Amino acid sequence: MRVLFYYRGSEHIGLESIMAYIQSKGHLVELIYEPALGDNGYIDIPALNNFFYNDELVVNKAIRFKPDLICFSAITNLYMPIKNLARKFKEIMPDIPIIVGGIHPTSLPEETISEDCFDMICLGEGEGALEDLLQKMREKRSYNDVKNLWVKDSTGHIHKNAKRPVIRPLESLPNPDKSFFAKYGALTSRIMIMTTRGCPFACTFCVNSFRNAAYSGEVYLRQRSVNNVIADMVDIKNKYKPKKFRFEDDVFAFNQKWLDEFKVAYKEKINLPFHCYVTPSTAKDSILKSLAEAGCESVSMGIQSGSEHIRMKLLHRRHSDELIIAASQRIKKYGLKLQAEYIFGFPEETPEEMWKSYELNDKLNAYNTASFIFYPYPKTALADYSIENGYLSKENYDKIKDGYGSYHTSCWLDLPYKDEVYKYNALLPVWNVTPKFLKPILKKILKMKYNWIHKFIYMATVPLIDFDEFIIRIKEMPHMIMQTRKALKNDDWNKDYKDSGIKELESDLIKKNITSKIDNIENLIPANIIAKQKLEKELKDKRRKEHFFHGKIKFDKAN
Ligand code: B12
Ligand code: SF4
User: Fold this and answer.
1) Rounded to the nearest whole angstrom, what is the distance from the C-alpha of residue 103 to the centroid of ligand 1?
2) Atom of ligand 2 nearest to the CA of 206
3) Which of 275, 281, 116, 83 minimizes the C-alpha distance to 200?
């Protein structure tokens, strides 16, 4: 089958994985990518998107490819442009089924499938679902029952199929295929890679708060083996000659044993500087030491709020001030640059608490800071809390569900201190690098009524959020623009492609790995042992549930 993907704004590791997987099943894949220069969350000037290329180039390429299936991936902030393009494709190619996957349809399946332009949505991981769908399409069989998919049939009825278990082990998948994004110039000299799926934590503002809950019967968090990761990186290093790597894992270094093995192999076979994410609780001495030995040069660490009360009770992040300060000192001790991340504009947060973020940051010696405005991503525990406690109106939530705004630009909650949110968010990156003797001036600006000065400082200091990344992007942008134009005009897919139609619907690697063998063994084990095992499993599940999802927020305002 001929499968066309569309993405915008950055390379997409999930799509790279899906594209590699379905190619291994004999399908022909093509990608249309746009850099989204005009609507990337920081700026909103859509005309810029059409400056170097336009919708016509995109649509024409799609028509020329003659797809059997069109695939979109959507995070919430990209949903609007993706929906608009899907509508255009539907108008021009009404008979070609369109599927959308990613965290947005996974969070809001009812809303997404109700759009006429989408025939199917994928909830959760897409590799196995897409394989089954394409196999059924190639055999001209009904695909209404594919697990992980919601499928709209010709009568308009929606088949809401059950979810499949998570893919385990991750090594059963081929390495993500970066070549499609590479030909559009979307890879920078700091190439992204992931070794895990999922996160060991469940902060209430994060999608992991509902994803962990949705998969509470199994462990969502998985990590690729060191050998598998290193082989992938060697291949990337040879093909794309990166100067650095960026581990995009939610939390990269949480497993000491894995890290000990990794640091030796990485040093020997890759030996390039890298960046990764840690948390105040995982940034232990031994972990940081191993990271430094492997070649890590910088880490991002989410602080999120300077108020311990907000952190612990509202965000479910069990980090005391002492723990955070000690972690930052250790990071420095091992010679790693710290990027500290903060969010302003939580429900219940007062200006005094926002100021606490500045005070805490002063104790961290951060190389740079990134600050964001709280964006209530659909279905997260804190979005639910905001609705239940009157902070998020139905009208604004509807806008969020359509992907309006971003966590760089807009505060969607009805807060008494909205202007403070914008001010504190705007000035933190510059506050972090301002010498002590100049800070009183900045503090005065902070106390001023919100005005153009704050907006100007924010715009002018955006590069400070991640200066190294900013420089890389600016330097590499002309190349990316040229490459995008070229790739949109070039039809370099295999013109001799013929679908070999391999018949193996029930056979693939993923399924072999997830099939449970317990059923056969159970008959041989005495009933009392089975009962004991069942009890232990229930207890384990309960403990896991408590660890991965801390339940509803109980915030005591008085404390
Ligand atoms: C790596 C990453 C990035 C990287 C790379 C982007 C990428 N998506 O690969 C960078 C740094 C560029 C990035 C940027 C942004 N990101 Co980001 N990012 C992540 C992160 C940490 C991992 C994503 C990932 O690769 N996961 C692993 C893969 C395997 O999972 P997946 O992407 O979900 O894909 C699977 C399924 O969803 C499904 N699927 C996905 N698409 C499709 C399509 C079809 C057709 C099918 C069938 C299935 C399918 O199958 C995939 C494989 O199994 C997630 C957090 C997380 N843990 O998910 C945040 C996350 C996706 N990012 C987020 C955001 C907000 C952004 C930004 C908007 C932030 C900003 N700077 O303004 C930008 C947007 C840039 C862009 N155009 O994509 C949010 C999205 C929240 C939401 N509800 O929409 C997340 C969830 C972080 C969070 N905790 O809130 N991000
Ligand atoms: S540590 Fe918290 S915020 Fe970061 S990815 Fe995990 S759950 Fe989300």
Assistant:
1) 7
2) 8
3) 281
32-74 pLDDT, tens per residue?
Answer: 999 887 776 666 677 777 766 678 889 999 999 999 999 999 9
47 or 141, higher pLDDT? 141
pTM score of the predicted model: 0.91
Same domain, 236 and 343: yes
Q: Are 489 and 443 contained in the same domain? A: no
Instruction: Please confirm whether the linkage preceding 46 is cis (ω < 30° from 0).
Output: no
**Cα 57 vs. chain centroid, distance in angstroms?**
28
What CATH number corresponds to the domain at position 84? 3.40.50.280
* pLDDT above 50 (res 521): no
Tell me the per-residue pLDDT of 429-487, one tens digit each, with 9 for 90 and over: 999 999 999 999 999 999 999 999 999 999 888 887 777 778 887 888 888 888 998 99
Q: What is the pLDDT of residue 518?
A: 40
Residues framing ligand 2 (Cβ under 6 A): 199, 201-203, 206, 208, 250-251, 279, 302
- Cα(270)–Cα(266) distance, integer angstroms: 5
In this structure, the residues whose C-beta lies within 6 A of any atom of ligand 1 are 8-10, 12-15, 17-18, 41, 71, 73, 75-78, 99, 101-104, 107, 122, 125-127, 129-130, 192, 194, 197, 206-207, 248, 250, 377, 406, 408
Give the containing element (helix H, strand E) for 355.
helix 351-362
Q: Are residues 300 and 233 in the same domain?
A: yes
Full domain range(s) for residue 266: 202-465
Whether 532 is covered by a domain: the verdict is no
Which tokens sit at 347? 């429900």
Pick the ligand that lies closest to the CA of residue 248. Answer: 1
Asked if pLDDT for residue 510 goes beyond 70, the answer is no
Asked if residue 167 lies in contact with residue 57, where contact means CB atoms within 8 angstroms, the answer is no
Q: How far is the CA of 418 from the centre of ligand 2 (A)?
A: 25
Q: What is the pLDDT of residue 539?
A: 78
User: Which of 40, 49, 89, 103 is the pocket-test mutation for ligand 1 (most atoms within 8 Å of CB)?
Assistant: 103
